[in-house]
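User:
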Amino acid sequence: MRRIGPLLWLAIGLPVALLAAYWPALNGGFLWDDDAHVTRPALRSLSGLWSIWTRPGATQQYYPVLHSAFWLEHRLWGDAPLGYHLLNIALHALACLLFYFVLRRLAVPGAVLATAVFALHPVCAESVAWISEQKNTLSGVFYMAAALCYLRFDSERRRQWYVVATGLFVLALLSKSVTATLPAALLVALWWRKGRLSLKADVVLLIPWFVLSVAFGLLTAWVERTYIGAQGGTFELSLLQRFLVAGRVAWFYLGKLFWPANLISIYPRWVVDVLEPTLYLYLAAAVVVLVILLFLARKWRGPLASALLFVGTLFPALGFFNVYPFVFSYVADHFQYLAAAGMIASVSAGAVLVEKRLSLGTGTGRRLAAALVAVLGFLTWRESFKYRSQEAFYTTILSKNPASWLAHDNLGIVLNEEGKPDQAAQHFLESMRLNPSYPEAFNNYGNLMARTGHWREAAEAYAGALRARPSFAAAEYNWGFSLNQAGRYTEASVHLASAVRLKPDLTEAHYELGNALANSDRIPDAIAEYTQALQQRPGYPEADANLGLALAQQGKWDEAIAHIQSALAARPKYAEAHGYLGFSLAGARRFPEAVAEYRKCLALGPNNPDIHYNMALALGQMGQTFEAQAQMDEARRLQISAAGR
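Assistant: Predicted structure:
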């Protein structure tokens, strides 16, 4: 009977093992910035797909292949998280299988062990269990496939393999720009395999890839600065500080790879003090190890190649370039997804060679390998529990990093959505205390205070947000919105006008400013703001309805009726719009139609005295005095009842 080969074992066993390891996360919902990756409503059309490709800033980062994949996924399973989780597991499994083929083509010993360890290592859990990190698994598939095709081209020198490899590399870059390290990784792998590099046969052929890497790297850096905010005081590190960060970051990732304990999604952010001697020890240790590996490379190239692959693949995340997560931590497990693969391959190869040298026997080696993979799988299974809910996710972070102001703020948002405002307030306050320069926590606390009617506390919080970031349009908008709710329309218009100045495309701010102006009897200005909101978002029912009311107040009955009918076409059960339409129809002396609209309004919201009053006037014009009097009496009763509360 023919034995089952290692490839078949991997093809069958990996998906099963990964499903088992990530089972606790499969019921988890969306986390953290998943809403910035799962396609937003404005981008779900074909024109939205075009924007994903042609308009930087339309998505959180300019990764159009990734966001096109999310666009397609939303077409397939909408907002159901399970589909995204299963696809992420499938992509990771595929990346692992391609990794196995790369190792086989390079004739690296222990390819099966390396593949299994990479698949089930808990440092990969953040990339696999977190939907946003599909950027890692998807780009990992293209990265491994591009490497495999290029290695085949290197062996066979057939042009079509070079073309396919280049196309896959571009897809990898358009999924996540950290894959820009691939051409350097290929040179290291070729040097390890051949013992030397040929300028013409090896280096020159990869120059176009290096050009693409630099171009995409610069584009990503620009997007990080321009659209995500990776600039300013938090990122102002000297070159010496960046080297000190890099030294510690490299050892941190290596430590987590060999001892994956206390893994969390937001690690404490180090203080980079150039007078702190221990920081220099990390850097000095790295230099010493590099010198030793250079000396050993005369006989054994593997250790140096392993170190170069690890540090080189990590290079974009070592601290020399600004990436937004550095605001709260210099390290994150998902940053070492690809780097981990190379180091795992090297250590696995070394373990296999040592086992052969010690003559432990095939059975002993396999049992030890199986035990290692089982332990890693168990750790990943345990790790994936924290992805089962947002509350579990942030609570786990705070249990190990209680000073994480970002986790406090995000947990506050979750608790507030769960109807726990008191607990939410405590986390917002703690976030504000830990980081007074983080405006989002002040803004969120202000929103909570405004919703509970604590207007003074809300105003103080919004003011704090704007002290931290004077250009924070959302805080200006929320402050203005809360003042509108409190009936302080003149003050509201000041903040809302500031919001639209800071962010002219903030449609809701134009709409709310229109409301503030209308309630301040500045009807022409209100009409201009409603019109602007509709230009930015055609079919916006609230803007259409309120524009119609403002036009009616100017006696422009036909225009008013057209806009309000447009609002009702978009939302037929819009009670206020039925009332506005009744008012406009009455103004146009179409009293029977007006009464019909008032009746629809009352059916949807029967306790509005103004509607009863306006309906009484319309009925009076129609000569139905008995019913008109009844409606007038009901209006008075409701007004008296409201005054007594």
